[in-house]
From TrEMBL:
Pfam families per the UniProt record, alphabetical: NapB
Coiled coil (UniProt feature): none
Native source organism of the sequence: Pseudoxanthomonas kaohsiungensis
Keywords: Electron transport, Heme, Iron, Metal-binding, Periplasm, Signal, Transport
The keyword Metal-binding is annotated on this UniProt entry: yes
The protein's name in its UniProt record: Periplasmic nitrate reductase, electron transfer subunit
Length: 188
């Protein structure tokens, strides 16, 4: 009986477990909350399809003006602009936006669907712009035979455009607009 302290410890743990289970089973069911009756006002969703723009300095991005005790309709999903028109870039080295839908494109460590059309070898066939030579450079500016692993996941930088409403005002001006608005140096 060299293991007598171990057997006693296991027996005590088992006994405490049984007691805790029995206590939870006996006393856990005493305080059951009454079921909440849904009123007609809360069962009908409130129309919150329009973007709510609060007055003053309030921000209500999550509820869009729907009271907390009511359920609102989700806003409609934004549709991807599928125009295949090359968009103007606002600053040098800006990643171009994707002018078509990419739903269902597989881009993972084994496959990159974007490269079917945009690889330098296939770009002319598919009338797609080839990826920049910078995508074939590693971090030491050495050219590789294939796309660099750090440039492999296209949607890290390139995004599709949707018809979603603008939620935040944007006063961005590109450099050409800024330079055109400046008065010439030296006065008039």
């Amino acid at each position: 009986m060299r293991n007598k302290p171990l057997i006693v410890a296991v027996a005590l743990v088992a006994l405490l477990s049984v007691l805790a289970f029995a206590a939870g089973w006996m006393f856990g069911g005493l305080k059951r909350p009454a079921p909440v009756q849904a009123s007609a006002a809360t069962s009908t969703p409130v129309d919150a399809r329009a973007i709510f723009i609060p007055g003053g300095s309030e921000i209500d991005a999550l509820r869009r003006g729907v009271p907390v005790n009511q359920e609102g309709h989700p806003p409609p999903m934004a549709r991807v602009q599928n125009t295949d028109i090359r968009r103007v870039r606002n600053y040098p080295m800006q990643p171009p936006t994707i002018p078509h839908t990419i739903d269902g494109y597989q881009v993972d460590k084994n496959s990159n669907r974007c490269m079917l059309c945009h690889a330098r070898a296939n770009a002319a066939t598919f009338q797609a712009p080839p990826v920049s030579v910078t995508h074939y450079m590693d971090r030491d500016d050495q050219f590789l035979a294939t796309v660099s692993p750090r440039r492999y996941f296209c949607s890290q930088c390139h995004v599709v455009q949707t018809d979603a409403p603008t939620l935040v005002a944007n006063g961005f001006k590109d450099i050409d607009t800024v330079l055109a608005a400046e008065p010439p140096p030296g006065g008039q």
